[in-house]
Q: What sequence folds into this?
């Protein structure tokens, strides 16, 4: 497993996303992932599965300090006291005294970044969170956050069909992680002829080649979601090959502004309807 070192803390570059996983399916997925060697788990208060993730982590028998655990506070709960209360609730549901990374899940439209970031810094000083960061922040808003707090991560939708070059540049320049969710574009990479050709050349699947493309980029990590053991194994088997520069460029050239996650409260990025 490859890792990033951010602010003195080690982040496994490949993690398990748990969005839309609940109950027994969530617990089985997390337990299986941990058995296979995953050590990076991503959840959020809004997912409604923190208790399931925490139960699976406890049942695994793996020491807490060997797993990088991430959660997020929802954009409607970003007043100072709300952040303190909601993140404490997340810790209780997860069954842990700390998370390794806490994120602002979405920026509040027209909101003030100082109160939530100040609250998260307080929790970091108290040892309740290891790193703090943001999710779904476009570059101008991220730059504001970087002026206020030691941002360790920006988690965003990122795959070959949606360029995040501006955010990647900021991640490299300011030494934080750019963590990709929806990294295989919800399976759409399997239908791309260029990615398929490169995958065939390596004896890998399109999903594996896409994850390799992300993980070869400086300061990038990825958190694909899966509830199937075969897919969990497949996603993990991306550290035994390397894409050459021409292949990296060819995959990056598949960009077509395909944004799959764009709720009404999202920041004012350039929007386009998701295309099949």
A:
């Amino acid at each position: 497993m490859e890792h990033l070192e951010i602010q003195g803390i080690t982040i496994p570059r490949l993690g398990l996303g748990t969005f839309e996983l609940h109950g027994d399916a969530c617990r089985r997925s997390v337990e299986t992932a941990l058995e296979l060697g995953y050590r990076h788990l991503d959840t959020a208060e809004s997912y409604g599965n923190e208790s399931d993730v925490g139960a699976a982590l406890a049942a695994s028998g793996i020491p807490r300090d060997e797993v990088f655990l991430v959660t997020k506070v929802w954009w409607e709960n970003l007043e100072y006291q709300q952040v303190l209360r909601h993140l404490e609730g997340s810790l209780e549901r997860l069954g842990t005294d700390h998370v390794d990374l806490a994120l602002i899940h979405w920026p509040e439209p027209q909101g003030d970044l100082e109160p939530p970031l100040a609250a998260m810094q307080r929790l970091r000083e108290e040892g309740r969170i290891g790193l703090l960061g943001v999710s779904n922040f476009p570059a101008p808003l991220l730059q504001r956050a970087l002026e206020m707090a030691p941002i360790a991560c920006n988690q965003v939708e990122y795959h070959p069909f949606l360029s995040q070059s501006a955010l990647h540049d900021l991640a490299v320049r300011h030494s934080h992680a750019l963590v990709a969710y929806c990294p295989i574009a919800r399976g759409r990479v399997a239908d791309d002829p260029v990615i398929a050709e490169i995958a065939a050349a390596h004896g890998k699947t399109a999903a594996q080649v896409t994850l390799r493309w992300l993980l070869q980029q400086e300061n990038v990590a990825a958190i694909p979601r899966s509830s199937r053991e075969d897919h969990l194994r497949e996603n993990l088997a991306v550290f035994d090959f390397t894409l050459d520069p021409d292949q990296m460029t060819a995959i990056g050239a598949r960009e077509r502004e395909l944004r799959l996650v764009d709720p009404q409260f999202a920041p004012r990025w350039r929007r386009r309807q998701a295309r099949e």
User: Anything to note?
Assistant: Residues 271-276 have pLDDT under 50 and may be disordered. The domain at 3-252 is CATH 3.20.20.100 (TIM Barrel).
